[in-house]
What does this fold into?
Amino acid sequence: MSLVLVVEDESAIAELIAINLRHAGFEVELALDAEAAQRAIDRVLPDLVLLDWMLPGGQSGVQLARRWRGESRTRELPVIMLTARAEESDKITGLDAGADDYLTKPFSPKELMARIRAVLRRKAPEALDAAVEVLGLRLDPATRRVTRRMGEALCELKLGPTEFRLLHFLMTHPERVHSRAQLLDRVWGDHVFIEERTVDVHVKRLREALAPAQCSALIETVRGAGYRLTQQLGAVQA
Ligand code: CA
It folds into this structure.
């Protein structure tokens, strides 16, 4: 399930957002100020952050967004800024700080959900339920099925839940090399308490699970760097 961190000090707005997100199938974590938001991010990297501009205490939402953009672990984190300000200059400040989108209060829950989906489609497609296909291998998050058509036959693969999430992430970010730490963050949702060699164990299991469809070679080991899902035709047998 995809996790959205809502950073908002007005509890009525935070609750309204949370209800709509949960209704749409997202898991929600709430933070009332910048410090709580940073603690949440340090613990588990969410799929997306809704970030209020005006927060109590020393740090604004814009400062937080800027800090996240400056750090490698959070550089790609999808962020939508929420604010009561409607002036054009504020909007530009927010986008300059690295926000992916910008929503002015009051907003309709419907518009919020549409913006969230648009940002996720662009930056974190693994957080959505759309089916993905690479070289004939098809993964459907809605039905949780992984299949590959081989001639006349449809080969259905059996994957454990972790291998399924790992394959989903790799298929939605093909050709890029992911370090073990990045995979722990994005697939396990936790980079602190799990050893990096856990990733190797699950990659091995994933390759074994892909073997009946002759797709094991899709998952490449990049020495000293991590893992990559290749889209090169030579990786699979027809
Ligand atoms: Ca506020």
Remarks:
- Residues 109-123 form the longest helix (15 residues).
- The first strand starts at residue 3 and ends at 7.
